[in-house]
UniProtKB/TrEMBL annotation:
CDD domains: ABC_PstB_phosphate_transporter (cd03260). GO terms for molecular function: ATP binding; ATP hydrolysis activity; phosphate transmembrane transporter activity. PANTHER family: ABC TRANSPORTER I FAMILY MEMBER 17. Residues 11-260 form the ABC transporter domain. GO terms for cellular component: plasma membrane. One of its GO terms (biological process) is phosphate ion transmembrane transport. It comes from Tranquillimonas alkanivorans. This is Phosphate ABC transporter ATP-binding protein, PhoT family. It is found in: Cell inner membrane.
Length: 265
């Protein structure tokens, strides 16, 4: 006899891109992330919200081992990408970060041309057979980041010469150029004006067709606009995780309710 629950479960499992279990993060003696379990779904935008210092960025950085670059940080627990342990010593963090890309709060283009900023990742990962291939990859990434029209006539100009909003879109183009499966965005719009913010939010909608996107944001309006799932963090705990609509209209935990109604944070 067919076990309905098993079938249902295997379908659910397929939709999970990243599964984290019992994650703890310490910076020296500071216990910044406390026993967090979460399942990030594929082709979904997940927002991490919560008051300043609650651990959103720290947890985000666990998902592509960016905390490895912080000497005092220690990560414990189990984090799997498509079922594979990303902290296994055999996993190369550089390869992992090509699969799980990241965009930071402050645009950080390399001191190179616009073209080279985008071409760098595909080059080191051997994604282009020749110059024409690379040109195509660069154009496609810049188009996806809604920067092509502004950049196409000055591809050899330095990336650092662009405006703040353009630089952030350049960093997004750089991140998508390696075709990551997951894109982590740490407050990607905090340095942007409303027009650039709107462009980035449109891009997030588009990216969700192919990728899983996780975004840390201080703006609850932004979380409500762009995400399907929301995780509320407080003092290092993941307090509540669910459908974005439910979290904002019918939170189950009083701490979530206090935060979304502006009483904490
Ligand atoms: N590199 C670091 N070294 C030591 N402590 C850190 C470091 N980064 C973060 N912390 C500490 O870890 C805790 C969580 O910080 P984190 O930046 O993850 O929070 P956050 O929710 O992203 O905050 P914000 O919204 O203000 O960016 C805080 O107590 C913070 O002081």
């Amino acid at each position: 006899m067919k076990d309905e629950r098993l079938t249902e479960r295997s379908v659910d499992m397929k939709d999970i891109k990243i599964a984290a279990r019992g994650v703890q993060v310490y910076y020296g003696d500071t216990h910044a992330i406390k026993d967090v379990d979460v399942e990030i779904q594929d082709k979904t935008v997940t927002a991490f919200i919560g008051p300043s210092g609650c651990g959103k960025s720290t947890f985000l950085r666990c998902l592509n081992r960016m905390n490895d670059t912080i000497d005092s940080a220690r990560v414990e627990g189990d984090i799997r990408l498509d079922g594979e342990d990303i902290y296994d010593p055999r996993v190369d963090p550089v390869q992992l970060r090509a699969r799980v890309g990241m965009v930071f709060q402050k645009p950080n283009p390399f001191p190179k041309s616009i073209y080279d900023n985008v071409a760098y990742g595909p080059k080191i990962h051997g994604m282009a057979r020749n110059k024409a291939d690379l040109d195509d990859i660069v154009e496609r990434a810049l188009r996806r980041a809604a920067l092509w029209d502004e950049a196409k006539d000055r591809l050899q100009a330095p990336g650092t010469g662009l405006s703040g909003g353009q630089q952030q879109r350049l960093c997004i183009a750089r991140a998508v150029a390696t075709e990551p499966e997951v894109l982590l965005m740490d407050e990607p719009c905090s340095a942007l004006d409303p027009i650039a913010t709107d462009q980035v939010e449109n891009l997030i909608h588009e990216l969700r067709q192919n990728y899983s996107v996780v975004i840390v944001t201080h703006s609850m309006q932004q979380a409500a606009r762009v995400s399907q799932k929301t995780a509320f963090f407080h003092l290092g705990h993941l307090v509540e995780y669910g459908e974005t609509g439910q979290i904002f209209t019918n939170p189950r935990d009083t701490r979530t309710e206090s935060y979304i109604t502006g009483r904490i944070g």
